[in-house]
Amino acid sequence: MAKKRKNEASDGIRIGDKILSLSGYLTKKPKIDGTSQASNEGISTSQEGLSTQNEGLSSSTEGLSRSKEDKRSKPVGNPKYFEARQALPLWTRQDDIRQKLHQNDVLVLVGETGSGKSTQVPQFLIQEDWCQRKKVKVKASDNGTTQEIAVGGMIAVTQPRRVAATTLAHRVAKEANIPGHGKKDGERHGPLSDGLVGYSVRFDHRVPKGTRIKYVTEGMLLQELLRDPQLRQYSAIIVDEIHERSVDVDLLSGFLKQILAGDKAGRGGIPLKVVIMSATANVGSIKKFFSDSESEGLYGSAPPATNPKTSVDFLQIEGRQFPVEITHTPKPVPDIQEALLSTLFKIHKQESLFDKHGRKDILAFLTGQEEIESAQRLIEEHAETLPPNVPKIAVLPLFGQLSMEAQHKAFQPTKEKNTRKIVLATNIAETSVTVPGVRFVVDCGKAKVKQYRPRLGMESLLAKPISKSSAIQRAGRAGREGPGKCFRLYTEETYESLEKTDLPEILRTDVLNAVLTMKARGIDDVLAFPLMDPPEFESVEKALLHLHILGALADDGSITSIGRKMVMFPVPPPYARVLIAAATPKYDCLLEVIDIISCITAGDDIFLQIQSEETKEEAEEFRKELWRREGDLITYLTTIQLYSAENADRVRWCKDRKLNVRNMKQAMNIRKQLRGLCVKQKMMEQPPADPQPFYPITPERAAVILKCFLKGFALKTAILAPDNSYVTAHGKHVVAVHPASVLHGQKKEAIMFLEHVYTQKNYAKKVSAIEAQWIVEAVDRSS
Ligand SMILES: Nc1ncnc2c1ncn2[C@@H]1O[C@H](COP(=O)(O)OP(=O)(O)OP(=O)(O)O)[C@@H](O)[C@H]1O
Fold first, then answer.
1. Which residues of 243-360 form beta strands (DSSP E)?
2. pTM: predicted TM-score of the whole model, two decimal places
3. 430 is in which domain, residue-wise?
């Protein structure tokens, strides 16, 4: 059966009257063996946060005979932080770290949460001789002439999330910069103006002149690799929190492995050092991945490595700075929200606001934006009823779709006196971050996980139990500034039954972006690219075909100029394709397309779900002016255009229409960034500033915009069948229009949908009415 499906796919896929061939891509035979899943063997999870500091005891300290005194080098930087830094478990092991990196290309460093990995390791390494900038001679690849260039001097520390990269940069800037040595504006802009430390995340870069340590998101470093495949400005790359195993970190590891195994001619012979860090990492598989001399590709071997042996060492650092006491519920909780509220208020009433270590705030882990916003409402309502002798509560949300400014608010101390901060976060706050003041963690034990089904081209986003590794990371957030407590809203048996680690993202999501990134980095044979856990062959096959349909790949599988442009946009490839089409004279609707994409990528739906019938009627009266019969996309467009034309009270305007105020603000923020990027890419002139008068979009213009969207979403279309169901044009699956869509319950000739989710049913979301003929036009690569 599987074989038959593969043959059909290899022959081609029919879209309208076209059959697209895959033969250009599929030169390698799939190698199906048992090695594709992450093995749990050799996983090193540091002991659950129980013990206090355990002086320098590692499984791997061979060859280090220096005295204890020598190992405690004097700190460099701001004396205000010396004591705190010297108290970290990592402090006494800094010479071991230096020595191991002096002798090896790669160091895998495992240490408990809060032991000082993210903040201290880069500060230990910048003083090393191999970490200094050097002038070298290299041959130019285009004309063979010899040039003198500078190589090294900087360390990049990658983080899975923007908030971790920026908060760590701020912290390390404070620790590493010597007060008074900065520029004059250092006071105004904080320690990041003083040099030494910087950060680079999507839409936000602060890299002062003289930066030596740069905190970056994994995605940003991948972008840098597109411009500089040898990462020449860096002496070392520190890959932090590898256990999260995002697609980006897997790609990054593959590229780093290639640089390590290469001949270093592009770096003038100067090696690149790599440190892999985590509290809960599968050390065995990481060591094997980097040290294997034949680069194991997805389904075959890559060309032999020039540098046949990458030396990899391992160091485990035990001990944590402060203990964390963990409590499980005696019985499973029937209602998580109720359990959350009662735990939060119990802590609030029983625990003091301060102790000798400082504030005693709370961090609670919930599944997503919707759950956070509803919990916030309930906590605030209940807090109003507290007697006057109980301290007040300030609730701060923290999730990925919030603007960076809103995210950073959760890291500030509360301004009001006699008030406890309660931060409600998704797993965005799970690793790497220190939320100042937090001493209590409440863990609901679940997270929303994306799961992709390549056969159906469908994604589901469901709340699932977290892994043990996540539970350990979450508890670790409580013991960073003093002894902490973690309340798990699940039983000990449930904890014991959790998987050790999460399935790597590459095995459960669409690999479209990953394949495009490889192609853009010059990886012609993506099947031979080294990955720790290769995804299913079928997923790669689908991604290649999809990229071909998007015009990102030519018939021979090479990347096109459109593909190269697509990787420049920080949005998924289909959206990038729509942006590029919108800038062409044929469609000429870039401003409208940016408006729509901004609404869609701003978080959960901008329209709040209304439960009560009475409020529904009221909101629907207001929403009538927004609804468009062309469907959700033109409705989004009308909404954001009316919102940006609103001059008086935008918050009131949103409340009347039951729109999510935060998401509207975030949409405006993304709109500004995307406009800026398109101006930079010379795709449009600087647009006029808001507010602009509102003119409703004509049906003809709406048709142009929807046709433009089909350039990215031709595969996400369905035709109305004689039995009144919608059947997808690609794959022939039945889909239902989601109840949240303005087209729910309506019959149209054909529909385009931007999302396809499986909950109780196979649902199409973000739906628009289209004509069947438009689908065929959209896949015509000549137009
Ligand atoms: N932004 C911050 N504000 C206050 N203290 C901080 C901050 N960042 C780090 N610290 C302090 O430095 C300590 C070490 O933090 P660091 O992030 O280096 O640990 P880590 O070993 O990388 O932890 P994890 O594995 O959880 O990422 C923390 O426990 C905390 O005491």
1. 273-278, 280-282, 312-317, 324-328, 354-355, 358-359
2. 0.81
3. 324-503
